[in-house]
Amino acid sequence: MDLVALDIFRTVAAEGSVTRAAERLGRAQSNATTRVQQLEEDLGVPLFLREGRRMRLTPEGETLLAYADRLLALAEEARQALHPGAPTGRLRIGAMESTAAARLPGPLARLHAQWPALSLELRTAPSRQLADQVLAHQLDCALVAWPPPGLEADAPIERTPVFAESLLLALPASHPPAATPADLRVHLLAAFAQGCTYRRIGEDWMRQGGAPVEVLELASYPAILACVAAGRCAGVVPQSVLQLLRTPPPLRWVPLGTCDTMLLHRPGYATPALAALQSALLSHQDAP
To answer: The domain spanning residue 39 has which CATH number?
Structure first.
């Protein structure tokens, strides 16, 4: 196995197609096909099931993919360690939707301007999924609301606090004032998928009112706010997201307290790129 072949294999697995993988990597399709076939021959097992033009991982391919993520991440870490004074290479960052929209544009722009040779990749997902991807070497670091639901207390992960988000429960404008969960007249929560810390906070607060809580899963804050405005449900929104809106919707807002956003990474992972990102985040936090 060589790193180039593993990178091609991983890209084909992600795209489900040699054609799309070759385009993404800037390679000829025949070259990508040959490298995957050679890898299968070297390992003595099929890595993909060919279903027309679609390629799906075999059980052996799934096993290799986990190792490929770890090997390629370690190789990138080693390359960066050879240039301790200059962040270069690639940094794969994960973030919640709210953090990506409200907190990252400034720090990432500053980071790119200062270190143009550093390639930044951003992926969004709920907090628990991001933490799992860091542990699986699929991300180098991630910004998550702490603690992610269901994450083991002793999970091998390091964290640095970078933001404190003020959370608000959005209610329809026609809803009576709600000082406590017992005052709620809606019992449907519009929220992101399982694994979202803000969803868990909203569910826990609403359940204190004694009524069961149902969840309507949505994929964006505009969709959540639209459903709340329609009078159907409640929704948890960070104050920083609300401040992005030119004209906030005329809803009723209930403070839910604060939640820390942590920068997560694996123990021992300490590259110049990660240090530069952390510095950019903390500097932006302290800026007036």
So the answer is: 1.10.10.10
| pTM beyond cutoff 0.85 | no
Whether residue 60 is found in the same domain as residue 20: yes
CA–CA separation, 230 and 190 (whole Å)? 12
Is the domain of 37 the same as that of 108?
no
Amino acid at residue number 210: G
Query: SS3 of 117, please?
Result: coil
- The Cα 166–Cα 145 span in angstroms is 11
Based on the fold, state whether residues 35 and 165 are members of the same structural domain.
no
What is the model's pLDDT at position 286? 47
Q: Which residues contact 234 (CB under 8 A, 6 or more apart)?
A: 169, 170, 171, 184, 186, 188, 189, 190, 202, 206, 228
pLDDT digits (tens, 9 = 90+) for 27-52: 999 999 999 999 999 999 999 998 87
> Of 126, 136, 66, which is closest to residue 94 (Cα–Cα)?
126
Examine the fold and report which residue of 19, 47, 82 is the final residue of a domain before the chain moves on: 82
